[in-house]
Write a structure and sequence with these properties.
The protein folds into three domains: about 270 residues, Purple Acid Phosphatase, chain A, domain 2 (4-Layer Sandwich); about 70 residues; about 35 residues, no CATH class. The chain is about 30% helix and about 25% strand. Strands 6-5-4-1-15-16 form a six-stranded mixed β-sheet. The chain has a six-stranded mixed β-sheet with strand order 7-8-9-12-14-13, with no helix packed on it. Strand 15 and strand 16 form a beta hairpin. The radius of gyration is 22 Å and the shape is globular. It starts with a strand and ends with a helix. About 5% of the residues have low confidence.
Length: about 375
């Protein structure tokens, strides 16, 4: 069994208000070409198909082109995808019956009634069946009719919610099983603050959305989405493939790739990264004005000026814009800069909880808990 693992396409994303649709199409064309070359049995996309719950017509057109191109080049390949926290689950769920006749499975909603289950798609090869479990992004409030609540009547944690959802499936561990999921999985015992997160990711206050990796034990491979940097969760077979294209300056320099998984008999899995090459790289260039101008390019560039002398701001901007037609931003390092990061940039990147605490000051523990709930509720509504 050979399949591709992709996630977090974020079609329609704008990087510093720059439209990336052509860049995204450029990368997705490479995915189609690799599918034509490798002829995978399946392609799985682990959530965040679009960047917005209500994508633009242009974004929908790019996704439509991608799926049609894939099915044209490899018509026998099964394509499976789930909704992520950026997607509109009901929209992803549209026309499922018709699409499944074309070997295209789109799971937008998790099970919400006792008689419903996680969608399972079975694909067969010479070693038998492989069961793909398609679990869209889930919040505890979405599935409380199934998983219940804690003893005190409060919603279950994200970990307990996912754990109960998977347990009720009674996964047959004698055969090969793959989970496709879009959550924040973390190796048990690891502090979530130790995990490097990208600026383009949506985070919850207090990392309340984390799910312990122990729930993944029944699966021979976990095709995960949500984290934008390629990352393993304790084992190579529990993997975030990352975004196919940089979604923020914090992803500058990362090698993006398709994860190609080859499963033979149970217990024998090989993973290969197939590199993807961007139309324009995302770069951070640091140096004096003279040094920066020598590195002129049409890449997406964040410029950090280190000149200690005053510069004519209008002349400086004109020269930099001329050298970098796809310039993202210009920053100046200050006297208080340490390790190449300006002090004001550190303030801007503080999370909402830290900013509120700094403004309100001297909050009690009870008030901090209430503030956490309010911020997380607002963030969920905004999605």
């Amino acid at each position: 069994m050979k399949f591709f693992h992709l996630s977090d396409l974020h079609i329609g994303l704008k990087l510093y208000n720059r439209d990336l649709l052509e860049d995204q199409k450029f990368v997705l064309q490479q995915v189609v070409e690799q599918a034509k070359k490798e002829k995978p049995d399946a392609v799985v996309i682990a959530g965040d198909i679009y960047d917005k719950a209500v994508p633009s017509a242009e974004a929908v057109s790019v996704f439509d082109w991608f799926v049609l191109s894939m099915k044209k080049e490899v018509p026998d390949t099964v394509v499976m995808m789930i909704s992520g926290n950026h997607d509109s689950a009901p929209r992803v769920n549209l026309y499922r019956g018709i699409l499944e006749e074309q070997k295209l499975y789109m799971a937008g909603m998790p099970p919400q009634q006792p008689e419903e289950h996680i969608q399972k798609v079975t694909v067969s090869d010479e070693w038998g069946n492989v069961n793909f479990y398609l679990l869209p992004f889930v919040r505890p409030s979405m599935v409380k009719n199934i998983v219940g609540t804690e003893a005190d009547g409060t919603l279950c944690s994200y970990h307990e919610t996912v754990k109960r959802l998977l347990e009720r499936e009674e996964v047959n561990t004698r055969v090969r099983n793959v989970l496709v999921s879009h959550q924040f999985y973390l190796l048990d015992g690891i502090d979530a603050e130790q995990v490097e997160r990208m600026d383009s990711e949506i985070r919850t206050v207090g990392n309340i959305d984390q799910v312990g990796a122990s729930v993944l034990k029944p699966f021979d491979y976990a095709a995960l989405g949500h984290i934008h940097k390629p990352m393993k969760v304790g084992k190579d077979i529990w993997s975030y493939c990352g975004t196919p294209l940089a979604c923020s300056v914090s992803e500058a320099g990362q090698v993006k790739a398709i994860q190609m998984i080859e499963m033979r008999e149970k217990g024998h899995t090989e993973i290969t990264a197939i590199p993807l090459y961007p139309r324009h790289e995302v770069k951070v260039i640091r140096g004096t004005l003279a040094e920066i101008l020598e590195a002129a390019s049409d890449d997406y560039v964040s410029v950090v000026l280190t000149d200690e002398v005053d510069l004519d701001i209008f002349d400086m901007q004109d020269r930099i814009y001329a050298a970098f037609p796809n310039l993202l931003e210009i920053r100046r390092e200050t006297a208080g800069t340490k390790n190449g990061k300006a002090e004001e940039a550190v303030q801007i990147n503080r999370d909402p909880f830290q900013l509120c605490c700094a403004f309100l000051k001297d909050l009690s523990e009870e008030e901090e808990v209430l503030l956490t709930d309010v911020i997380n509720t607002v963030q969920e509504e905004m999605r």
